[in-house]
Amino acid sequence: MKLTLGFSPCPNDTFIFDALVNNKIDTQGFSFDTQLLDVETLNQGALEGRLDITKLSFAVYAKVKDQYTLLNSGAALGRGCGPLLIAKRPIALDEIKDCRIAIPGANTTANLLFSTAFPHAKNKDIMVFSAIEQAVLDEKVDVGVIIHENRFTYQQKGLVKLMDLGAYWEETTGNPIPLGGIFIKKSIPETTRRQLDALIRESVEYSFSQYPQLSSYIRDHAQEMDENVMRQHIDLYVNNFSIDLGQEGHAAVDRLMEAVR
């Protein structure tokens, strides 16, 4: 059975899916047409029902619930791993509402967390996450919401952190931060969905068994990222919740859904 599968080229996602898509584990007759895309592109694709299995921002979950259901394995959820609000120079938080803000996609969890913290900040520029640091440096925007590996690089570029949006979420809700999860079309039979969930879990566990070694698949898609940054990325975003969301993970997702409403 061949299925379409979408996830990002970021090290946490390639770490999770490496064994599955490169036949390092027994895929039980499943094969995959794999598409590696920016998470906001994946979010948009899910709104149109493009892929059978896809990584999505949890913030878009409510908009795709009629077509997709959440799998237990493969998620990016945890503590101390949320998006950061950064700028070229210190800015008072009560001035953010008047700033021009770069966000990594309208449907991202990063935008949802920012909007929760700054509900009156409306002057947003949507751009690919990897372009936000430079946009702030070039003063095309006043502040930026950064995700992924940019958490590890912004200080090297002389940028300053104004707020940790993930820490804000943790402090106000007590929950870990639900960033993104793996979703599968409801039209796929439930027994097949369970099989695929188990395979993703096995794929994550395989990568953990090889770690800290990085496969060529992870390195090739990491856009010339330093290997230490790749490992920082994996350490931050891949954890026990990536193996199984469990009760605590699902509770955090439910709490985020309340914020969406």
Automatic annotation (TrEMBL):
EC number: 4.1.99.29
Pfam families in the cross-refs: VitK2_biosynth
InterPro entries: Menaquinone_biosynth (IPR003773), MqnD (IPR030869)
UniProt pathway annotation: Quinol/quinone metabolism; menaquinone biosynthesis
Top EC group: lyase
Gene Ontology MF term list: carbon-carbon lyase activity
Highest taxon of the lineage: Bacteria
Binding of substrate, residues: K55, L56, S57, T109, A110
UniProt keywords, alphabetically: Lyase, Menaquinone biosynthesis
Catalyzed reactions per annotation: cyclic dehypoxanthinylfutalosinate = 1,4-dihydroxy-6-naphthoate + dihydroxyacetone
Gene3D superfamilies referenced in this protein's UniProt entry, alphabetically: Periplasmic binding protein-like II (3.40.190.10)
Active-site residue numbers: H148 (proton acceptor)
A GO BP entry: menaquinone biosynthetic process
HAMAP family registered for this protein in UniProt: MqnD
Job of this protein: Catalyzes the conversion of cyclic dehypoxanthine futalosine (cyclic DHFL) into 1,4-dihydroxy-6-naphthoate, a step in the biosynthesis of menaquinone (MK, vitamin K2).
Protein family membership: Belongs to the MqnA/MqnD family. MqnD subfamily.
Record protein name field: 1,4-dihydroxy-6-naphtoate synthase
Organism from which the protein derives: Chitinophaga parva
Encoding gene (name): mqnD
